[in-house]
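Case study 2.
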Amino acid sequence: MSSYIIEGGQKLEGSVKISGSKNSSLPIIAATILNAGKTTLYNVPNIQDTQMMYKILEILGAKVEKKNGKIKIDTSKIEKFEIPPDLMHKMRSSVILAGALLGRYKKAIFSYPGGCDIGSRPIDLHLKSFEKLGIQVNQNHGNIECNAEKIQGEKIDLDFPSVGATENAILASVLAEGTTIITNAAREPEIIDLQNFLNKMGAKITGAGTDEIQIVGVKRLKDISYNIMPDRIEAGSFLCFAAATKGNIILEDVNATHITPIINKLEEAECKIEINKNKIKIIAPKKLKAIDIKTMPFPGFPTDMQSVFASMLTTAKGTSIIVENIFENRYKYAQELNKMGAKITVEGKSAVIRGTRKLYGADVKATDLRGGAALVLAGLIAKGKTQIDNIEYILRGYEKLDCKLRNLGANIKIIWIFCKNYRNIVFFLIQYILEFLGGENFDKTTKRRNWQFIQSFK
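Prediction:
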């Protein structure tokens, strides 16, 4: 188990570089399967979810090389078509591998995915899309086996603009015979990034960013290098961190057009936003103004940002109302924030947030990725010490979050706890010393090396 320890009350100032997009990296990593060769990716965030995708690819037979900030993936010798159930249950995005396996091999075996418990996220739209393409789908006690003699382009009408279903339909269609048309498609920037990646490989896809996407099947793809787009949710999170702490920061390597709804709501809360090419500067007011938010598919306000905004609005002037229209269980963080003095009342899809003068440090736990980020924000503005447990959720989606926040002036550290007895103290002290010696370059390789060292004392 690992935790964040935050001493609140520090104003965030300075600049921060936004990492590559988690939600873009995962389908693009999956898409490398479609090319029977080598792909080089840049700007992939070093987070638990991308590491999990590499692990699954390696189990399937791919070779993954991580060096000097670039990822080389060789999928020429994939010989397995079953995604391990234990890994499927850890990460929902692993279902995107199914479309890629089907596109290239006409076969995929997988189970229902897991991930954060934020509400019902069935994959029926994914499976219906596969069946439309002539793929036979057999379900048996939670296991799903898909097979096809050939994949034939067809019109796919999605009942809901699901990002995952749109991505899977695209991946399954790239090497199909004929033309596939996806209507009511998701319009998120990550869909555009996937299209740009695949087209650079030789695919023929048009319409990404609109509600109708057309894929003309091709025979094969080619080796390429590609740079992943910046993470719009990380960008939005840091803007909220600055706004809540009455800070003044500059985001670097960010695309403002991807976060227009977020910027609009921050300006409504009386933040000053300045945009200059790939940089965004935010200057927070002395007191945030209460606002109302309704989550919607892109280009509406993103559901992934509602928890962080809710946390920010706990100390705003007035009463804010949030309506969550995507995931029904996304308010689990509210109970944890209320432990810190927030006044949040949840009823159905709505949360009423009555601004309070101050939050207070407490022991809380993350229950999902974005809810965990909301707790980090609360810790940054709370009086006293906040300990956030279960930060494995947060590490799934934010690269070096504690390091980036410290560089902006936050008092935050991460502790790694490996056992539940008195020896814990000894091992923690060893780990802390090693982390101190490693400075802010305390990455996963270092942690793994130190963990091996600590284990030798048991």
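The first strand starts at residue 2 and ends at 7.
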